[in-house]
Amino acid sequence: MSCAGSRARVVAAGVDAPRQPTRGPDPSTVRLVTAGEETGTFRGIRVGRIAAPLREQVIDGLRTAILEFELQPGQRLVERELVEQTGVSRATIREALRELAAEGLVVTVPQKGAMVYKPSADEARDLYAVRASLEALTVRRFIERARAAHHDRLRATVTALEEDVADGADMHRLLRDKDLFYTELLAGAASPTIEQILGGVQARVRLLRATSMSQPGRAAQMAAEMRALVEAITARDVASAQRLCIEHLDNAAATALAALDGVGRQGS
């Protein structure tokens, strides 16, 4: 499927922006929209008048489309179409795609070009298995090495996550909450080796995390699992904390795999 068939496009939100016909869209108003916006079904992010570089705004728009499944896993990202839709240069589009590839959201396939990352079922299972092993070790190191201040900050991240889930926060907010949790967990674990290896794995599973958390009821379940994990960590119960960590990832894997299978069936 090409970008044109995705019902998603990046355009200039030029409602009150000055027209610049020879320079493309106003860099302060690039946003991602879908054909369903006219009926109020659009769930993307409008970029207001901010000083962020145009390249960063294009990256944000494409990232939003991928994480909210407006651009489907496995879908081709055709440079020519993205240039036409955004009005930016091909070089800017290539830079944006390279950045998203580094995040694990885009892959380049020989003879097909850039595509939205779609792991196979086996790859997804392996990624979650690797995560489970690494995060269980991270939990052990945190319990062994973290100071009281680390425990306080880790508990605060889960409290913020619970509050955002209760408030119905969007996927981006929940992903940021989980990123903060892992930042604090790694800080307390004090292992540059684990942090470097886990960082590479986390980039590959970001789409899987979004896939899992987007399923009905999963966000609340995830928050409860994270609370139980932190309580075990705080109690310095290594065995329980590692078990809860692995159970959390097993549940996330099962949810993500079922959702990806559903996406594959819809596209077949």
List its traits.
single chain; 268 residues; mainly alpha; Arc Repressor Mutant, subunit A; Four Helix Bundle (Hemerythrin (Met), subunit A); 2 domains; two-stranded antiparallel sheet; 9 helices; 7% strand
Map the helices and strands.
Elements (H helix, E strand, L loop, with lengths): L7 E5 L17 E5 L19 H14 L11 H8 L3 H13 L3 E4 L3 E4 L4 H25 L2 H19 L4 H19 L2 H22 L4 H17 L3 H30 L1
Antiparallel strand pairs: 1-2, 3-4
CATH domain topology of the largest domain: Four Helix Bundle (Hemerythrin (Met), subunit A)
Number of E strands = 4
- Full CATH superfamily name of the largest domain: GntR ligand-binding domain-like
Q: Roughly what percent helix? A: 55-70%
Low-confidence stretches: 7-51
**Strand arrangement across the biggest beta sheet:** 1-2
> What general form does the structure show?
elongated
- Assigned CATH architecture of the largest domain: Up-down Bundle
Structural class: mainly alpha
What is the end-to-end distance?
A: 11 Å
**Count of helical stretches:** 9
Write up what this structure looks like.
The protein has 9 helices and 4 strands; from the N terminus they run E-E-H-H-H-E-E-H-H-H-H-H-H. Helix 4 packs across helix 7. The chain is elongated, with a radius of gyration of 20 Å. The relative contact order is 0.11. It has helices at 54-67, 79-86, 90-102, 121-145, 148-166, 171-189, 192-213, 218-234, 238-267, and strands at 8-12, 30-34, 106-109, 113-116. The strands form 2 sheets. A two-stranded antiparallel sheet has the order 1-2. Strands 3-4 form a two-stranded antiparallel sheet. It folds into 2 domains: 3-116, Arc Repressor Mutant, subunit A (Orthogonal Bundle), CATH 1.10.10; 121-267, GntR ligand-binding domain-like (Four Helix Bundle (Hemerythrin (Met), subunit A), Up-down Bundle), CATH 1.20.120. The longest helix has 30 residues, at 238-267. With 268 residues, the chain is mainly alpha-helical.
